């Protein structure tokens, strides 16, 4: 009897200890979730860094054509990828330029490249970006991708510093774009995301790039992304409303159709000239023209006395040693030009290799 009572007390104490441990773990988990909700941009990433744990490596994938305009951007991007890839804090794996021109080009030996077919002639209706989702479908089906995650990137991305895996398990990480507004375009969104699927707020304000996503999830979404893109392009109202960002909306809708939400990371990248400082950002996206007068004042919409605009170099690469902006221009623009200059100074045959 004494032994049994002793064993009973021991079991009770063990059970109580397990309950206390479970309660403590639950409290910590809830606290972590609440912290993350309060500061979704930084909190979980900080916890991971403090604990010394890192997520899986991600494969850097950029879709491109063989036009000179895409080629020189890819060369700059790849230069900075190589420079930061193995630095502390990086989860960057291998790199692939997914070339959707259907043929090899002169950069095959310089940049790891996987050639895929473009959409059948006429299907993109002159909107070449529709080839992006189709390129990913082919690459995912045919390529040997070692990494568990994928970063979908674009040629006009420059890595400012080592990029960790911002995804959290099956929760992808994405940059929120201020001009992607599903809730303000509900009538159109509902053509492709019916009410029975859920509220329109399920559609994230994102495009496909930059996004870090588990490869298995991307394999599920990719074909839907293609189909939604083509349907949107065929719908005149949608095509007119979404214009050059149609394919971005298509990715957001396709993800929602698969029940995939994204962790929105404003620190994923910056976009000069609107973002003034680099600060803690990981990628510079130089999609906008940067025009200033010599007083350092922005003259957006009007060609400035000093300017950097990627569209000035449609037929060939920018020259080496671009002049730096005048005093007063934001740090983000200065940093962009310095990074372009460093790359062009170190990439072989810069002035002659990639010209149309």
UniProtKB/TrEMBL annotation:
<dbReference type="GO" id="GO:0016020">
    <property type="term" value="C:membrane"/>
</dbReference>
<dbReference type="InterPro" id="IPR044845">
    <property type="entry name" value="HPAT/SRGT1-like"/>
</dbReference>
<keyword id="KW-0808">Transferase</keyword>
<dbReference type="GO" id="GO:0016757">
    <property type="term" value="F:glycosyltransferase activity"/>
</dbReference>
<keyword id="KW-0472">Membrane</keyword>
<protein>
    <recommendedName>
        <fullName>Hydroxyproline O-arabinosyltransferase-like domain-containing protein</fullName>
    </recommendedName>
</protein>
<keyword id="KW-0328">Glycosyltransferase</keyword>
<dbReference type="Pfam" id="PF23452">
    <property type="entry name" value="HPAT"/>
</dbReference>
<dbReference type="InterPro" id="IPR056508">
    <property type="entry name" value="HPAT-like"/>
</dbReference>
<keyword id="KW-1133">Transmembrane helix</keyword>
<feature type="domain" description="Hydroxyproline O-arabinosyltransferase-like">
    <location>
        <begin position="58"/>
        <end position="351"/>
    </location>
</feature>
<keyword id="KW-0812">Transmembrane</keyword>
């Amino acid at each position: 009897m004494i032994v049994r009572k002793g064993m009973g007390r021991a079991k009770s104490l063990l059970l109580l200890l397990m309950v206390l441990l479970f309660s403590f773990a639950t409290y910590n988990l809830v606290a972590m979730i609440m912290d993350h909700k309060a500061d979704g941009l930084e909190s979980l990433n900080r916890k991971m860094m403090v604990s010394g744990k890192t997520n899986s490596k991600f494969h850097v994938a950029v879709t491109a054509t063989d036009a000179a305009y895409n080629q020189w951007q890819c060369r700059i991007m790849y230069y900075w990828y190589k420079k930061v890839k193995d630095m502390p804090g990086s989860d960057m794996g291998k790199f692939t330029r997914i070339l959707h021109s259907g043929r090899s080009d002169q950069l095959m030996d310089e940049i790891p490249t996987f050639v895929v077919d473009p959409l059948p002639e006429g299907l993109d209706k002159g909107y070449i970006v529709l080839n992006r989702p189709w390129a990913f479908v082919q690459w995912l089906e045919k390529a040997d991708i070692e990494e568990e995650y994928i970063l979908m990137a674009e040629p006009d991305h420059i890595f400012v510093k080592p990029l960790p895996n911002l995804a959290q398990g099956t929760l992808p990480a994405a940059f929120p774009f201020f001009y992607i507004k599903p809730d303000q375009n509900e009538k159109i969104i509902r053509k492709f995301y019916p009410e029975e699927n859920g509220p329109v707020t399920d559609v994230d304000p994102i495009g496909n790039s930059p996004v870090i996503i588990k490869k298995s999830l991307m394999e599920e979404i990719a074909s839907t992304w293609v189909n939604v893109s083509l349907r949107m392009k065929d719908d005149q109202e949608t095509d007119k409303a979404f214009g050059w960002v149609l394919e971005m909306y298509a990715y957001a809708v396709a993800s929602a159709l698969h029940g995939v939400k994204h962790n929105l990371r404003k620190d994923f990248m910056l976009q000069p000239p609107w973002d003034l400082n680099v600060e803690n950002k990981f990628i510079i996206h130089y999609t906008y023209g940067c025009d200033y007068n010599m007083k350092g004042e922005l003259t957006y919409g009007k060609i400035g006395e000093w300017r950097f605009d990627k569209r000035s170099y449609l037929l060939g690469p920018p020259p080496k040693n671009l002049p730096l902006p005048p005093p007063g221009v934001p740090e983000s623009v200065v940093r962009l030009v310095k990074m372009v200059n460093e790359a062009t100074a170190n990439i072989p045959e810069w002035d002659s290799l990639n010209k149309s």
